[in-house]
Amino acid sequence: MELQLEIISGKRKGEIIDIVKGIQLDGILPFLLETDAFRIALTSANWIDNPTIIIEDAEIRLRPSKPCNDKYVFSAEPAYKDHSPQSLFYNYFGIATFYLRYETGSKTELQELGQADILARKATVSQIESMVSFILSTDQSELLNSRGATRRGADVAPDLNDTPNRLLEKLESNIQVLEEQIPYIVNRPITKLDTRLETVRHTPYIDIQEQGISWLAENISVFEQTTDPTLLYLSGMEHL
Predict the structure, then answer these.
(1) At residue 173, what are phi and psi to the nearest 5 degrees?
(2) Is pLDDT at 120 greater than 90 in this prediction?
(3) What domains can you pick out in the chain, each with its CATH number?
(4) What is the mean pLDDT of residues 224-229?
(5) Largest CA distance in the chain
(6) What share of the chain is helix, strand, coil (3-state, %, to 5)?
(7) What pLDDT was estimated at residue 58?
(8) Mean pLDDT across the stretch 203-219?
């Protein structure tokens, strides 16, 4: 099988890239720019069913094209936006491995076709450098708390070796939160909490914590039947 990429955008428009499995004769992989948009053409001596090109987590379904030199050709066009072809590798760089997934009878086969070197723009490299610098300068506890990697209320042991700059940044962030919230607290302070019965529509986005699951397990009797499959009705559930 032969895999070819035809570049259809940028300065390299019209150039054909051959993706070959194994080490190249000159030891250099074919390369693509992250901004290159391209057509995909797969040539095979035999007919194959449901051919799909897989690159990382992207799946590209190929369609039969006009045969060439008694061989079968399967191809795919890039997506278009505002009449411009879109790049598959935008904001990606490194070695990309091309796989072919196809069906033979009742089995699904996976075959490696080759690799290409994806070159990044200067802007992308700068963004990555900034991201790596931020991660290296931020302690583990702050990363987990800011991105919600752990459940609510959880934390890791505090790092007592923070640099003065990091401590000042944390203090500045906390002061900013106080400046934004204090006027609301002063104007409308919370004086009491009331309970109310409420019908809650079921949704996969409801954030049910461990306490909620435990309460439901102990109070199964509060559920009542309903004809609406999306409705969760709790006759005695209280919300603060």
Answers:
(1) -65, -45
(2) no
(3) 2-121 (2.60.40), 138-187 (no CATH), 196-239 (no CATH)
(4) 64
(5) 83
(6) 25, 35, 40
(7) 87
(8) 67
